Amino acid sequence: MMHSIAQKEFVSTLRDKRFLVLSVLVLALLLAATLVGRASYQTQQRERQLAQHTVNDQFRRQPARHPHRVAHYGSFAFRPKSGLSLLDAGIDSYTGTAVYLEAHQQNSVNFSQAQQSGSLIRFGEMTVAFVLQMLVPLLIIFLCFGAFTQERETGTLQLLLSQGISLWQVAWGKILGYSRAVALVVAPALALAALLLFSGEEFASGPDLVARLGLFVLSYAVYFFLFIVGAVVVSARQASSRAALVTLLGLWILGCIILPKATANLGATLYPTVTKAQMDAAVHEEAQHGINGHDPQDQRSAALKAGLLKKYGVDSEEKLPVSVGGVLMTESEAYSAQVYQEHFAALNDTYRRQNRISDWVGLLNPYQAIRPLSMGLAGSDFAHYVHFQQAAEAYRYRLVQRLNALQTSMGHGDKERKLEASTWRQLPVFAYQSPTLGWAWPHLLLPVVALLLWAVGLSWLGLRLISTTPLV
Amino acid sequence: MMNTFWLLFSAEWRHFRAAKGLVLLCALLLLTGLYGIYYGTTEIERQRQHLAALPELTRRNVEELKVKFPGPADAGEIGYYHSTYAVHHPNAWASLSLGQRDVNPYYVKLRLLGLQNQLYATDNTNPMKVLSGNFDLAFVLVYLFPLLIIALSFNLLSSEREEGILTLLLAQPVRSSVVVGAKLAFRLAVVLGLAWLLSVVGMLWAQVPLDSRVVTWLGLSTLYCLFWFGVALVVTALQRTSAFNAVTLLGVWLLLVVLVPSLLNLGVAAAHPVPQGIELTIKQREEIHAGWDRPKAQTMNRFFALYPQWRDTATIRERFVWRWYYAFQHLGDVAVAPQAAAYATGLQQRYDLVEQLNLLSPAINAQGSLNALAGTDLPTHLQFQRSATAYHDALRAFYYPYLFRQAEFSHHDYALEPTHTFTSQPELSTALRGLGKLLLSVALVYGLGFGLLRARPISPR
């Protein structure tokens, strides 16, 4: 009986012109978003690869230079797009694409898409995730708001129940039927996305991508299931179709538009961000004055020089086998890098605290659970971004210290000399390895738990509520 | 006739008071609007505080330099270690419509070095936060007010028809247009009352000056609300069920507020591919660092071609001298000037295209006009960048005599250094154009609505 109800809902949904129009529209948007996502992935990835290639090439082809000159010349790290970002661009449009890596300082990641788009981008970006997270739930609402109210308004509910079937079975039958209809809309787009991902040469497909895509599909399945159950429950508890529709739309607006904005802004108010100017000044202050603050740079370098003379048992700088400048550079780089790291860690910590509020609200609002989960799986969330930042900094530090070591080994009088051009070809270039799902997993735990709690809670509590719903 | 109108109007008022849900909804929107004002003003206040802290950072920097160089110094050293700021102050209206002020940096830290790689440095921002966007009064007006209007008027006549009251009502000697008119007028009064109340509270809170912008803001928000009532009128004129109306109205909202903007964004980006700013930085780095390896005379001759006034200065024989260093820094900027111009024009062209196409969506138009009024959108940011560029020119002009005439830089010279300030101005013409376009959209929907009503008079069933 439950299956025949499911079949009936499925068939009547397909016959409903309104639903047909809406689902064709949503499907078209999904397919378009997939193709647009792929196109923009390709352009951006190509641009970044080309740029990374260009700067690496430029680095290798440098003329004979003093190593510290090369350290200032520096390099760039471009953030590669993750394959799944064609489905969910996450924060990619709001983070920069490139960071300049140079001696003595850590720079911010500049040139974001958002700065190039004017205020249009603030209305939302047309990505697969956008359609899945915001529009499909609307489709579900339009599909399910009359699940019970219409039957009640036309008196067919009592007829059904007189056949000896329970309300509980009616509800599950409807949920199953609607689920099939929604799957019919969403599945083709996701299948196309999977096809693009696994057939395109530009994507490094592997077990990690398969796992991420699988979980991606699974989480959205749970998310849609939630909305279907929720809409059926609301429909059962409301007196009229109109009331059910208005309630559901109200919840959608609250969950998908108002709450995410409000929590993000609340986070920024509660944990204020330090400006770049303030941070730079603080870093400069600490790097200048050292840990105890009473040991200015000149005195420190004098002590260092004395230590070197003693170590090598010589009485003048000229006799040292190493360059004092190089040793000094190495020391100061180690120190300033540590100061920068502390400040960047504190800044990222502030951001994390700001974002955590939104993550916890995911327990109240499924949209705020699926959003971080989806981005996290697509590799376009804040944690993945920080991973890139840290990889770029680790490379910068190693590069600068290698160059400082080269300078040190040049011995006294290094400033007047240069190292030959072939030296730069032996230095490693920046290559970014994006993290695996295993690494990302801890960041996704909270949204996963929130989503599962919702699914289980709604199924259990909602259907209990349905059982006690008034029949007329 | 007038009496019937007021009778119906007051009947609506009684209905409205009785319908707790609607009162609750209005109260909720009022609170949301107040939060929007609170958020916008505190955000701008925070930006003001950040800007106010910058002179102190500069002062501390100068103090440090005075210790580092106790006597007269080489101006080259000062130019290298000394940093000042180009600042973009918000005007009072920015609190009501934050626009792009959270994405685009509102100050630029400048040293005497090449400008281009300093100009684009972004401030610390949480990408998750900017992704979610600002919750300011403009957001409430542009995004949420249409939803309130939809909630109030999706069942304008359909509910009465569904409850069977419409037959009774139309059996009376009343014209159906008066019935629709009175119902719309009542809802319009509620919504506009709310919009004006919030706007006035916002203006008082943000302490805006009393000038033509007050009228423009009110005009924009009124016309925008009127537009959405027009859409409701068109849907009412179709005379379908409440559920159909709700779905249709929400579909229109989704189309105009969500879909058209995001599709337009894609289209505009495709129509005007902006040369990636990164190319510019890479090229500039090449140019500047090659400066170290080039013969000094070559660099200086290229520089003197641009600044002939320094041609007669001493020939450089030293291994390193600051004026040569700053000359090749500047030549790095000159080398990428075409790219920098192309980048800025590309952005401006995107903006202009949106300006032309925003007739497609009154939401984009309203948001754009409010941002223009508040001076928080792209053209203002580009103006600020030009102003920062001019400031960098002024700094160079200040330091060049010290460098080329080899004059000593003494402690009292710090105070002579030029400073920068820029306050965003409203783009009234853009806002007024937006007002005109909104008027056009309003005329269009009301024309359509009344036309439909005339073609098919309201039937009781």
Automatic annotation (TrEMBL), chain A:
Pfam families given in the database record: DUF3526
UniProt KW Membrane keyword: yes
Lyase keyword on record: no
The entry's keywords: Membrane, Transmembrane, Transmembrane helix
Segments traversing the membrane: 126-148, 178-198, 210-233, 239-259, 444-463
Name of the protein described by the UniProt record: DUF3526 domain-containing protein
InterPro entries attached to this UniProt entry: DUF3526
Domain of life: Bacteria
From TrEMBL, chain B:
Highest taxon in the source lineage: Bacteria
InterPro entries hit by this protein: DUF3526
Keyword terms: Membrane, Transmembrane, Transmembrane helix
Coiled coil as UniProt keyword: no
Segments passing through the bilayer: 137-157, 184-208, 214-236, 243-264
Keyword Transmembrane helix: yes
Name of the protein described by the UniProt record: DUF3526 domain-containing protein
Species classification: Bacteria, Pseudomonadati, Bacteroidota, Cytophagia, Cytophagales
